[in-house]
Write a sequence for this structure.
C-alpha cells in the first residue's frame, strides 16, 4: 500500500523556521521524483519545490528561492523541506508528491500538513 505521510507542520512566528518531512512507503522511493506543493485557503494548489529521484536536480519557485531547501534521504525513504525566513503568505497546507521519474502514472500524494505563520 502506497503511503506518503507529511509531518513537521505547526504554528511559527514570522521569520521563523520549520522542517517538514514526508515519509514514503509502498513503492521504490529512489525511482520517484519528489515535490512539495502547498495550498492556501481560497487558492489553488501550487508546486514550489522539486527534487529528482537521484537527488541531482532541484527546482524552486521564485517565491521560495533562497528561503526553502528540499532534500531527500533515499535510505530512509524520506523527503524533507527546510523552510526559513517564513512569511505570513507561507501559511498553507503543505503536501508532498511522488512521481515516477519516467513520468508514468498519476503519482502519489500525502494528506498534507498545516503550516501557519503568525505575524
Amino acid at each position: 500500500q502506497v503511503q506518503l505521510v507529511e509531518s513537521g507542520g505547526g504554528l511559527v512566528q514570522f521569520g521563523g523556521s520549520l522542517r517538514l518531512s514526508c515519509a514514503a512507503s509502498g513503492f521504490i522511493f529512489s525511482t520517484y521524483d519528489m515535490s512539495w506543493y502547498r495550498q492556501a485557503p481560497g487558492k489553488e494548489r501550487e508546486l514550489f519545490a522539486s527534487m529528482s529521484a537521484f537527488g541531482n536536480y532541484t527546482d524552486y519557485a521564485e517565491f521560495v528561492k533562497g528561503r526553502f531547501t528540499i532534500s531527500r534521504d533515499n535510505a530512509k525513504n524520506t523527503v524533507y523541506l527546510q523552510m526559513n525566513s517564513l512569511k505570513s503568505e507561507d501559511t498553507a497546507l503543505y503536501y508532498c508528491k511522488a512521481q515516477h521519474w519516467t513520468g508514468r502514472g498519476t503519482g502519489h500524494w500525502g494528506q498534507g500538513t498545516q503550516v501557519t505563520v503568525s505575524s
